[in-house]
Amino acid sequence: MRILLKILTVIYVIVALLLSIWFGRNLNVSISLHYLETLTTIAAIILGIMGVWLSLIWSDRGKSRKENISYVKNSIILATMVIICSLLFKLLYPIFLQIPIFFTPAILKITRVLSCFLSWIFTLFIIEALFYVVFSFDFFTFDDEIQEILNNSKKKVENKFLSLTQKDIDQE
């Protein structure tokens, strides 16, 4: 499964690079900056959700079980990377515009392609982080204590059902 994900990621990066080169050279950087702001907001929401998830639910029980926290950790890492990189890009781009040597058409096209490519890559990071948020419940639902509670509740329901049917048989 991991090999398939790596192959799909490589294909996505290649397609994103080709689309960025083809369409990004005519795309205005302000559109990419607006899109990066949206991705930063989504990443901040993901970071907040996973931070609360980690601190409230995992605090006591998770100290003994560290092997299944990869979903939570990966989503926090990806969200943090998107926030840091997009903030750096938004900070450095206006400084970049102040330097007169960078006003050549070739460098402006490279900047447009780069901003478009970063938008594609950050979108991949956000999608991956959202999948980690969705699948992070695995850490908690397959916990031994929770699985035992679920099994006990099933047994109680089965016992209750059997006792009700036994009463019906005894009454006949």
What is the overall silhouette? elongated
Question: What kind of sheet is the major sheet?
Answer: none
Extended strand count? 0
| Average pLDDT, all residues | 77
String of helices and strands: HHHHHH
- Give the number of helices: 6
Give the C-alpha Rg: 25 Å
Distance between the amino and carboxyl termini: 56 Å
**Poorly predicted sequence stretches spanning 5 or more consecutive residues:** none
**β-strand amount:** under 5%
- Helical content stands at over 70%
Structural class given helices, strands, pairing? Answer: mainly alpha
What does this protein look like?
The termini are far apart. This protein is elongated. With 172 residues, the chain is mainly alpha-helical. The relative contact order is 0.14. α1 (2-23) packs antiparallel against α4 (105-135), α2 (29-57) runs antiparallel to α3 and α2 (29-57) runs parallel beside α4. The mean pLDDT is 77. It has six helices and no strands.
